[in-house]
TrEMBL record:
Recorded catalytic activity of this chain's protein: (2R,3S)-3-isopropylmalate + NAD(+) = 4-methyl-2-oxopentanoate + CO2 + NADH
Subcellular location, record wording: Cytoplasm
Residues engaged in binding substrate: R96, R106, R134, D225
Keyword Manganese: yes
Coiled-coil blocks: none
Organism listed in the record: Siculibacillus lacustris
Gene this chain is encoded by: leuB
Protein name: 3-isopropylmalate dehydrogenase
GO molecular function: 3-isopropylmalate dehydrogenase activity; magnesium ion binding; NAD binding
Cofactor note: Binds 1 Mg(2+) or Mn(2+) ion per subunit.
Length: 367
């Protein structure tokens, strides 16, 4: 089969790290592991400069038609003053919204070679491999009413509203359970049913989906605040954590610090499966931004971006073996001691973005 990849490098270091992904794509193609058709588009400030908006309708159509969107990063001081609707982030938000990307997957993997870069002690994080599945299109970030009103006495009142419907919880729960089946077969569902109605419904729906459709997968319920504590105390107890938009935002940032640098963290965002084609819309992107402070200097760590492509191989292209191979190559490069500046210890030798990408290719050659 031939897979359609739509590459959106974006701004800043986005363009530099995408070059390294293109090398990896070419490697898999040359090895006959998969055939790719790649197309490049513009997003963020670089799209604004050409089209006057953060993503053009033509590029949106290409994203819709692709098997996977591979996204770099957007933003930078150059575009701080552009109109609000055309700001770089608007391109990212439109992609998420129009592609219906309701499930955000954030793995937290602690490579043994980097365990000392964690905020926690080595023994707590070494070998850590957990996956946070965060609901991305609902909850308190989007619920209405959302407003600041001035009361008669002149005081102001701010309102945010948390809303979740059965359908939204069912579909995120299914993603979490399905992923757990490909891992260690355990889902931990985090909410606050003790104080929130959305937590009560979340708990009920996840429980029912688990019982009716995934009886083979272990399910536990954990209060979200306790989950935050457990992530720092004993994170290896988890496999897949399934949670809402707000708690997922916080829990995934905590998990990020267990693993070291921002430059190491991949992510995937998935939409619903089309009942006819069996395909699902998906976008893969590093967690970090466009890093204007180091852009153009060849200093960016490409591993978060390459790791995001590994997730595309696994989740969109059904090439789990190829994804494993790529992740093994990344681990081998880290084991060999190669470090970009963001993951180097003081005084350690560092390599450039290109050298790190080349080393991943060389490691793939050796596997
Ligand atoms: P950032 O993630 O771009 O950078 C934070 C710090 O981490 C910087 O010191 C940067 O040099 C470093 N860093 C990030 N990625 C790295 C990598 N791959 N290798 C080495 N070092 C790396 O976040 P910041 O500085 O808050 O935002 C910069 C711009 O990026 C802003 O315009 C912001 O709006 C945008 N942004 C975009 C995101 C996206 O496209 N998804 C996400 C977050 C921020
Ligand atoms: Mg966040």
């Amino acid at each position: 089969a031939s897979f359609n990849l739509f590459l959106l490098p974006g701004d800043g270091i986005g363009t530099e790290i995408m070059v390294e992904v293109e090398k990896v794509v070419a490697w898999f193609q040359a090895r006959g592991i998969a055939r790719f058709e790649t197309e490049r588009g513009l997003v963020g400030g670089s799209a604004y400069d050409v089209h006057g908006k953060a993503i053009s309708d033509a590029d949106m159509a290409l994203a819709q038609a692709s098997d996977a969107v591979i996204f770099g990063a957007v933003g930078g001081p150059k575009w701080d003053a552009v109109p609000y609707d055309a700001r770089p982030e608007a391109g990212l938000l439109r992609l998420r919204k129009d592609l219906g990307l309701f499930a955000n997957l954030r793995p937290a993997i602690c490579y043994p070679a980097l365990a000392d870069a964690s905020s926690l002690k080595r023994e707590i994080v070494e070998g850590l491999d957990i996956l946070i599945v965060r609901e991305l299109t609902g909850g308190v970030y989007f619920g209405e009413p959302k407003e600041i009103v001035t009361l008669e006495n002149g005081e102001k009142r701010a309102v945010d509203t948390q809303v979740y419907s059965t359908h939204e919880i069912e579909r995120i729960a299914r993603v979490a359970f399905e992923l757990a089946r490909t891992r260690r077969n355990k889902v931990s569902s985090a909410e606050k049913r003790n104080v929130m109605k959305t937590g009560v419904l979340w708990n009920q729906v996840v429980t029912r989906v688990g019982r009716e459709e995934f009886a083979d997968v272990e399910l536990e319920h954990v209060l979200a605040d306790n989950c935050a504590m457990q992530l720092v105390r004993r994170p290896k107890q988890y496999d897949v954590i399934c949670t809402d938009n707000l708690f997922g935002d916080v829990l995934s940032d905590i998990a990020a610090m267990l693993t070291g640098s921002l430059g190491m963290l991949p992510s995937a965002s998935l939409g619903e499966t089309d009942p006819v084609t069996g395909k699902r819309k998906a976008m893969y992107e590093p967690v970090h931004g466009s890093a204007p402070d180091i852009a153009g200097k060849g200093l960016a760590n490409p591993i978060a971006m390459i790791g995001s492509f590994a997730m595309a191989l696994r989740y969109s292209l059904d090439l789990g073996d190829a994804a494993d191979l790529l992740e093994t190559a990344i681990a081998a490069v880290l084991d060999s001691g190669l470090r970009t500046a963001d993951i180097a210890k003081v005084g350690e030798n560092t390599v450039s973005t290109k050298e790190m990408g080349d080393a991943v290719i060389a490691a793939l050659d050796r596997l």
